Amino acid sequence: MKKAQRKTKKLRSKEKQKKKPSVCSYAPRTQASETTPICSGTQLYIPMFTCWIVGFVAAVIFCRYFGQSCKDQPIYYLDQPTYKNCTPTPTNTTAPEPEKPILLVWEWPETIDFKFDPIECKNRFNIDSCHLTDDRSLYNQSDAVLLPHKSIKKDLSNLPKDPRPRFQKWIWFNLESPTNTRQKAGLENIFNLTLTYRRDSDISVRYDVDVSKTPHENFVIPKKDKLVCWFVSNMDPGTGTGTRMKFYEELSKYIKVNVYVNMSGSRLKDEDYYPTMESCKFYLSFENSIHKDYITEKLNGPFAAGTVPIVLGPPRENYEQFAPGDAFIHGDDFPNTSAMTEHILKLDKDDEAYRKYFDWRKYMSVIPHYKVWNEEFILPICRACDYIARHKDYRETHELFKWFFS
């Protein structure tokens, strides 16, 4: 009896377990032998919610420990960088200005009284490429040292005493012709550059005739009340003036020459220099000595004043390397002084023929040289300043006087 009751209880307990709902029930598929589990809604969303929480926490941790501030991390695009939430700093694209080379004028030419403000190089010739100074304390830093030949003592005792830096160039500066240049032993092989009137100098200086592609306005010839003029201050035969004095004496036999400055016994004021010259139809542009390329301000003056120069110097071919051939009269154009005089007198009466000497003015011009005698040194010194700024190559000059006196 008791055994039968215990069996009955076990059977009822098994049936209750069968009736208790399971987590998943199975629905039959098309084939009776296979079933598909179907889970309840609560059990399905629990793993999804857990995954979302884990992902959110991972994202927060990544941003906290691996993110960078906008100051450190720019966001780059192809065109230009853009900074998130930051004001971009402008980039300076201007290249730094190179340091200007130093040109040291060891001695001022001719006289200690002659000096000029370096700003004149910029104002007059638009040259502002070096630092020009006469401060000898800058010797060891100077890129070049300018040494005027006339200022160098015969025993060379006033040359720089300190050893020359390897980068430094010495410039031999001389505007005189060989006739008026004294050779000084010991100078033949110590210079790097030459600065003279000669075309084959390293730095050649003269008053150029500038050519323009655009024609200028019609040139008006200044009013003339004199036929021939001559400004002459140097009459020392030891400087080679004998040739030009002889030419003048011959010419004055046939025609009146208006003479000014020392030869006339009176000084011409600086402000009267160009006005007096432009009042003359012809001007005697006689060099004190005759050498290749030795063509000085004596040609520039009458060109600038609007006067026809009568030149005495190197051959016509040499003059035509610097000026148009139809702008001047050369002494070699005539067999003698009498024939030249006839030509001058003819031009005086023929305005049309005289005007042809100014045809070059349509496409050419000149910059007037300066009336004060020692201002002639400003242009060469400024040119030297410009040269050392543009030329960095190494050079040496050997047998200086053999070259210059050739």
Report on this model:
- With 406 residues, the chain is of the alpha/beta class.
- The protein folds into two domains: 102-206 and 379-404; 209-368, Glycosyl transferase family 10, C-terminal domain (Rossmann fold), CATH 3.40.50.
- It is built from eleven helices and 15 strands.
- It has helices spanning 2-19, 41-66, 119-125, 242-251, 273-278, 297-305, 316-319, 337-349, 351-355, 378-390, 400-404, and strands at 24-28, 35-39, 102-105, 131-133, 144-148, 169-173, 193-196, 203-204, 209-211, 226-231, 257-260, 280-286, 308-312, 329-330, 364-366.
- Strands 4-3-5-6-7-8 form a six-stranded parallel sheet, covered by helices on one side. The protein has a five-stranded parallel sheet with strand order 11-10-12-13-14, sandwiched between helices. Strands 1-2 form a two-stranded antiparallel ribbon.
- A hairpin with a 6-residue loop joins strand 1 (24-28) and strand 2.
- It is extended and about 130 Å long.
- The model is unreliable at 1-5, 16-40 and 68-93 (pLDDT under 50).
Short description:
This protein is an alpha/beta fold and 406 residues long. The protein is built from eleven helices and 15 strands.
Which features would summarize this protein structure in a list?
Rossmann fold, 2 domains, single chain, 5-stranded parallel sheet, alpha/beta, 6-stranded parallel sheet, 15 strands
